[in-house]
Specification:
The complex is a heterodimer of chains A (151) and B (361).
Chain A lengths: L1 H60 L7 H12 L5 E7 L5 E9 L1 H12 L4 E10 L7 E9 L2
Chain B lengths: L4 E6 L2 E6 L5 E5 L2 H6 L4 E4 L5 E5 L9 H11 L12 E4 L5 E5 L1 H9 L1 H5 L1 E5 L1 H8 L4 E4 L3 E5 L4 E5 L12 E4 L5 H10 L3 H6 L18 H42 L8 H16 L5 H11 L5 E7 L3 E8 L2 H15 L3 E9 L2 E9 L2
Parallel strand pairs in B: 1-4, 4-8, 9-12
Antiparallel strand pairs in B: 1-2, 2-3, 5-7, 6-7, 9-10, 10-11, 13-14, 14-16, 15-16
Classes of the chains: A alpha+beta (151), B alpha+beta (361).
């Protein structure tokens, strides 16, 4: 009987050790998984916030320009009342449609109006701009702007 | 019980004889009486308990001997009789094989301790074979052993018409005649000779775990083990819950962004964000730049030109002091999130002409 009891005890201890070993390995893996999942979740949540903010930004812009850029410049300049201030306008080479426009003798309010007008079109971007104060009239400035149509 | 005791099983009775004074005591066969015997005695079973078979095999020290005996027995008995549990052999010279009868099996099952505690277990015929020289006939109530010069025949039952004229002696062994048996034992030359006729009856029946008797322990350990497993399982629950929560939240985000059904939602999310960034963030934001510049530079500064593209923002102007320039630059850094550096700053006539540049990459 002692022998049998000993065998049962040994089996019991063996099963306990085996189960503990399996449990420890499983817990370690699970802990690692959860840590990685947490990092992944944080990254995904951050990306999601960025994505939503950017899509919101685009939604706010509203309308899209469907026609050509040259026509748009002429039309928008007319609506702001600065058609006569266009010094030059020329298309730029490249994959995307882009123009370089030189406005002359603009006041700050007109410059801001031009930027607001472009900002209100979802598929237009200002590739670059340069505002230079005029020497002949410090209250006015020339604006050289490159506008790109992205899609 | 001492090692010099002889225990003779006589049906349901045990005769216990001390070699020293040859006196006999009788006990009914029962677990108590078996327990009282102690250990190390010489147990003599009724002769009918094993059927002896003469073989011409030499007792080789090899594992193949058992198979040789088995093969020999198969020439005499049907295959199903020659089973591990039914036959054995003694390493006498030549080898004596034996078949275990049902009575022996019952005895080992009902009173295993009787066999386990015996130093040697044997039968009258085996003792006679070791003790008596020459040709003889040994008759017990149920068996006959005819020993010739070389071989012998052991029969359970009676042989009618047996010619006993050529035999040297004839011995009638009554069941209760222990004195003849004691003479046999005394005539066995030495302990080794006695050991050689010791039957290994428990070898043929592997010891089984006493499961029934250990039911309580098994149930107890099983319950403990199950509790242990359950505790381990519950220990893992918080981690599993946390894992599930994160997975559900990630799934929720994918669903919200309508990318859950794509093959790689995570890759799709990165792709979309990167695309948006390219479309929005790489271009200068003129309105933000103008408003930041107007906030950063106070009334004491005059901005002469602003140039901005995807890589940099350059601001040229005039300001009263270098300290004011530093402060304005810091404000601009904070407003646009770009680090501005002073490209040039020249002091002329109490005014600082400056050019500062901020690079987005």
């Amino acid at each position: 009987m002692i022998k049998e009891r000993l065998i049962i005890l040994i089996i019991f201890v063996f099963l306990l050790s085996l189960s503990s070993g399996i449990y420890s390995a499983k817990k370690k893996d699970l802990y690692q998984d959860v840590r990685e999942l947490k990092k992944r979740y944080e990254k995904i949540a951050d990306l999601s916030r960025q994505y939503l903010a950017l899509s919101e930004m685009e939604k706010k812009k509203g309308r899209m320009l469907k026609g050509g850029l040259l026509g748009y410049i002429q039309k928008s300049s007319g609506s702001i009342g600065i058609s006569d201030n266009i010094g030059s306008i020329k298309p730029l080479p490249g994959d995307r449609e882009a123009v370089d426009v030189l406005y002359q003798k603009l006041d700050l309010a007109q410059i801001i109006s031009i930027f607001k007008e472009i900002d209100g079109v979802s598929n237009l971007r200002v590739r670059s701009f340069s505002i230079s104060r005029r020497f002949d009239n410090p209250g006015l400035a020339d604006l050289n702007i490159q506008i790109e149509k992205i899609k | 019980m001492q090692q010099d005791s002889v225990v003779i099983l006589q049906d349901k009775r045990l005769a216990v004889i001390r070699k020293s004074d040859a006196s006999a005591e009788y006990y009914e066969l029962s677990p108590d009486s078996v327990r009282a015997l102690g250990k190390g005695y010489l147990l003599v079973l009724p002769d009918r308990f094993v059927n002896l078979v003469y073989t011409n095999l030499v007792p080789l020290k090899t594992k193949k001997l058992k198979e040789m005996v088995r093969a020999y027995m198969k020439t005499l008995y049907p295959d199903d009789v020659v089973d591990d549990a039914d036959f054995g052999y003694l390493k006498t010279s030549p080898v004596i094989a034996y078949l275990v009868t049902e009575e022996t099996k019952s005895l080992t099952k009902d009173y295993p301790a009787l066999i386990e505690n015996a130093g040697i277990t044997t039968t009258p015929s085996l003792l006679a074979l070791q003790a008596i020289r020459g040709r003889f006939l040994l008759k017990t109530g149920d068996t006959m052993l005819i020993k010739n010069d070389e071989d012998f025949i052991h029969v359970i039952g009676k042989l009618d018409g047996l010619d006993t004229s050529g035999l040297d002696q004839q011995i009638d062994l009554r069941d209760d005649d222990y004195k003849v048996l004691m003479d046999f034992i005394a005539s066995v030359p030495d302990r080794d000779a006695l050991n050689r006729v010791g039957l290994d009856l428990l070898r043929t029946k592997k010891p089984q775990l006493k499961i029934e008797a250990l039911k309580t322990e098994i149930v107890l350990f099983s319950v403990l083990y199950i509790l242990f497993l359950v505790s381990l399982f519950f220990n893992l629950m918080p981690l599993k819950k946390e894992q599930k929560t994160y997975m559900e939240q990630i799934k929720g985000i994918y669903k919200k962004l309508d990318i859950e059904n794509t093959s790689d939602p995570y890759g799709m999310l990165i792709f979309k964000v990167e695309r948006f960034r390219k479309e929005h963030l790489q271009y200068p934001d003129p309105l933000k730049i103008l408003s930041s510049v107007s906030l950063a530079f106070d009334q004491n500064a005059e901005v002469e030109s602003i140039t901005a593209n995807k890589e940099l923002i350059r601001i040229k102007g005039r300001i009263r002091t270098l300290e004011a320039l530093e402060e304005s630059t810091k404000r601009l850094d904070n407003a646009l999130g770009i680090r501005f550096t002073t490209e040039s700053a020249k002091v002329r006539g109490g005014v600082v002409n400056f050019v500062i540049v901020g690079r987005s990459r």
